[in-house]
Amino acid sequence: MSSDEEEYDIGNFHCAHIITENHKQAIYGISICQQAIPDENEAAFFFATCAINQICIYKYTIVNKKSSAKLIQSYSDSDDKEYFYDCKWTMFGNKTILAAGGLRGVVRIIDVAHRNYLKPLRHLGSVNQISFAGKQSTLMASACSNHTVALWDAEAALCLATYGGPDQHSQGILAVDMNYDGTFIVSGGLDNIICVWSTQDNEILENKAIAKRGPLFREFRLTKPHRIYFPIFHSTTMHEHYVDSVKWFSDDIIISKSADHIYCIWKFDENEKEPNILFRWNRAENDDIIFDVRLGLSIARKMLVIGRVDGSILVWNMTTLPVQPIKLTHRESQVMIRNLAFTHNGRGLVGCNEKGQIFIWKQAD
């Protein structure tokens, strides 16, 4: 199903399955594989979660109109002090890949079909979030606690560039997202700042070409990450608290959220000093400051979703803003929903919470 055919009647979601992982700790990372599963109907999908030092992969299927969600693979990091914060799916050629990073600063790359680790990507600080470019599926950006964003060719395990300087992010970076073409990165952090970075410097393009040649070449072994000190755009005025979620909505429109429950949809122009704010709203019902609660955005950009402290979920129809969101609730969902992800057609929604629970929501047929 193409993105233009995405269903977005958000009033008829129902909770189809609840899974509780054994650790019963907060699940920060959840991601749905957008690749079709061979020999399965289009409603089937893989999804992954990461929490403590574990990565879990599940398969959701429908057979004879009966749905099921089963754990099919799991991985435990050898370091029991690891805590994975984020995971994302991508493709290396025809290989289905899952990447996960967290507290220890190591992004694990898993070849799902062959059930083995590829070369890890090592950072000098914790990895709070990762993002892959849709059009360049080996290109990965990572948000780090050492105040920098790193750009990688994840298949080659080569760091192409690092972004950060004395006048930009001065604290840990919580959120990162790369646009579909892989030409821009947006980042947000503990310093309330949002930055937009370019991946098109000549030195970065040269490093990308070297990465494709492979590790047998001398140039590969001698390659150093290109350092970018200045973003092409930054704002200190949009948010007054930690920026913990950023999403590209289109080529020049970004959605951002801060820990004080302020949401912004805004347009950036590298020739302008301030953002053009298209829509701004405050969902706060009290003075609580809660961060590391991440926005979910459907593939076709028609639905936006966020979890709440009480375990409910707010879903916006992005084609009818500023209409109020639909609220989804379930009696078993009573604690903070940290992260949510949509299936490729927008008819499925998977969320995770503070107690190791996973909720699979489906639209009625």
Q: Low-confidence segments, ≥5 residues, pLDDT <50?
A: 1-8
DSSP, total strands: 30
Helix content: under 10%
CATH first level: which class? Mainly Beta
> What's the multimeric state?
single chain
Strand portion? over 45%
CATH topology: Methylamine Dehydrogenase, Chain H
Provide the residue-averaged pLDDT.
91
Give the overall shape: globular
Total domains: 1
User: Major beta sheet, specifics?
Assistant: 5 strands, antiparallel
End-to-end Cα distance: 15 Å
CATH superfamily: YVTN repeat-like/Quinoprotein amine dehydrogenase
What's the CATH architecture name?
Answer: 7 Propeller
What is the count of helical runs? Answer: 2
Structural class based on helices, strands and sheet pairing: mainly beta
Gyration radius from CA atoms, angstroms: 20 Å
Question: What do these coordinates show?
Answer:
Helices cover 5% and strands 47% of the residues. The two termini are 15 Å apart. Strands 6, 7, 8, 9 and 10 form a five-stranded antiparallel β-sheet that branches. By secondary structure, the chain is mainly beta. It has a single domain (3-363), classed as YVTN repeat-like/Quinoprotein amine dehydrogenase (Methylamine Dehydrogenase, Chain H), CATH 2.130.10.10.
